[in-house]
Specification:
Two copies of one chain form a homodimer. Chain A is of the alpha/beta class. Chain A has a single domain, classed as Ribokinase (UDP-N-acetylmuramoyl-L-alanine:D-glutamate ligase). Chain A is 39% helix and 20% strand. Chain A is built from twelve helices and 14 strands. The first copy, chain A, starts with 7 loop residues before the first strand and ends in a 5-residue tail after the last helix. Chain A binds chain B through residues 21, 23, 49-59, 68, 86-88, 91, 94-95, 98-99, 271, 273, 313-315, 317-320, and chain B through 21, 49-59, 68, 86-88, 91, 94-95, 98-99, 271, 273, 313-315, 317-321. β4 of chain A pairs antiparallel with β4 of chain B.
Chain lengths: 333, 333
């Protein structure tokens, strides 16, 4: 096994988030399910964009946010994801590199544009995502640099990678390389609709050991195990053989293995502005903790601290240095 | 005099704001004067961008922010400003149109890119701006649509328009058309460095009646009248013949004419996040108030309410509908 050069390699759909504040009415008029992510085509992307009012544009993508979070904690993350050679793509690469993420996936030239997700924020802070995948549909196995996978303590991937066909193959190729080099593989279930789309494949991967670590929120875990009861879902997770990191919103988070079930409380947040990125930043804290040999309890606590930070402003990436915030809270970073 | 179709026509440099949070140290290392706006060339723009970390991108430009604010109050604003036919420019036009601003300046094609201002936010909420003017340097008198000027109750322009040579000519042409049609002309002094650059020309315009209404903050008014004493500056403003709307930060604002001197208190803000746009949104409230025949006191109060709203989040444009906020505060909008 070679030396660990990266604390985590994050692989995901490289997406620019386009935020707008809307009233509850807007979701009703557009027949959108609050809190969901849906995939849209070019026509729908243009139509919705025209209707959504003043926007704010921030680099996003679930695993990209996690990589930025790990960098902000002072860790060493790498990222694979496909942008186009356009302004949004250039900004995406800038934001990655400028925050200290190793990002070397070559951009797509003269083809479809960089992906964007139109995120509608309602007054309760919930976000409803409308994603045009663009260049992400061209991410495939050839974008998986085996040296980076081999040099990363864990390879962390989005369930959303199941949406573009070639990205799914890249996911499996990366998992194979990681295990061949004695590394761990993690998946985040992304959202409950994503779980609906790929439930049996996610099950298979957990059962056959393709993934060692599963990140999920309550809705996703219940969807995965097809139950309305969270305790039943937790029992199933315990029996699955994987380590499950479960986020519970304002209730905190849990780490679940066959032998252990740990629960930590959420950090108090006075002013929840935008829930975007809560799960992504929890994963950043948890993965950073594991890379620093924290026990599961401390890793959960750091995850909750990072999640609390990101929901107190618009956007899914840290605004302040998380290493400072973690140090002030008593973590060794 | 034809009917008033627009409450205000705002003319300014159409700029995309690129925000990043930095520590105080960063300004010291870069020898930047906190709170200032400096103009930079392409090389410096690229160099600084590489160093500034994770960014957030929002359409900005002082007069553009004011136009968006008037629209958010339920008013009818128009805007003139030059973007390029590129992604930033398209986003700029979208944000204007989507918020209800009449924006019909043709974009620049196959030339220099849309302007951007790299805004460094320090932990105290102050912002230091580094502006690459790009397409704004191509805004000129031919972009001034006389029908729109004639149909606007007031034409409001940035002092910053003095920076690109052709824009200055456009400013004077617009002022001439406005007065010929019995309309008012307003200027914002933009920043104290801008006043330093063009003091005598600004003086001349106020003295000879090219402008009827002057927006300034404390630093700008002191710079205009070359005094360190605000009372001396206020006396000079009183004698100038123009209506001066003076913002005083946490102290509130004043309306000053030869016959009248009114002071209103600032709205209390619990959590100042980013001072960008405070002056622009004060102007939005004040201009909207004048268009609705408010007296100077009420116009100042609405200006302060709008300013308080914009400094409680990142970015210089309203996130929530200002008409709702103004109504809740008892204004008739």
């Amino acid at each position: 096994m070679s030396d660990t050069k990266f604390d985590a390699l994050c692989i995901g759909n490289a997406i620019c988030d386009v935020f707008a504040h809307v009233e509850e009415d807007f979701l009703v008029q557009e027949s959108l399910v609050k809190g969901s992510m849906r995939l849209i085509d070019t026509d729908e992307a243009l139509r919705l964009y025209d209707k959504m009012g003043q926007t704010v544009r921030i680099s996003g993508g679930s695993a990209g946010n996690t990589a930025a979070g790990i960098a902000s904690l002072g860790g060493k993350p790498a990222y694979f994801g496909k942008v186009a050679k356009d302004e949004l793509g250039d900004a995406y690469a800038h934001d990655m590199t400028a925050t200290g993420v190793h990002f070397a996936t070559p951009p797509l030239v003269n083809d479809i544009p960089t992906a964007r997700s139109m995120i509608l924020i309602t007054p309760d802070g919930e976000r409803t995502m409308n994603t045009y995948l663009g260049a992400c549909t061209k991410f495939g196995p050839t974008d998986v640099d085996p040296d980076v996978v081999a040099a990363s303590a864990v390879t962390y991937m989005e369930g959303y990678l199941w949406d573009p066909e070639e990205a799914k193959k890249a996911f499996l190729a990366a998992a194979h390389i990681a295990h061949k080099n004695g590394r761990k593989v993690a998946i985040t279930l992304s959202d409950s609709f994503c779980v609906d789309r790929y439930r049996s494949e996610f099950h298979d991967m957990i059962r056959n050991g393709t993934v060692d670590l599963v990140f999920a929120n309550e809705h996703e875990l219940k969807s995965l195990y097809e139950t309305a009861d969270i305790e039943t879902a937790i029992s199933a997770a315990r029996e699955s053989g994987a380590l499950t990191a479960l986020t519970l919103g304002s209730e905190g988070a849990m780490a679940i293995t066959r032998d252990e079930q740990i629960k930590v409380k959420a950090e108090k947040v006075d002013n929840v502005v935008d829930l975007t990125g809560a799960g992504d930043l929890f994963a950043a804290g948890f993965l950073f903790g594991l890379a620093r040999s924290y026990d599961h309890q401390a890793a959960c606590e750091l995850g909750c601290l990072c999640a609390a930070n990101v929901i107190s402003h618009v956007g899914a990436r840290p605004e302040k240095r998380l290493s400072t915030i973690a140090e002030q809270a008593g973590f060794e970073v």
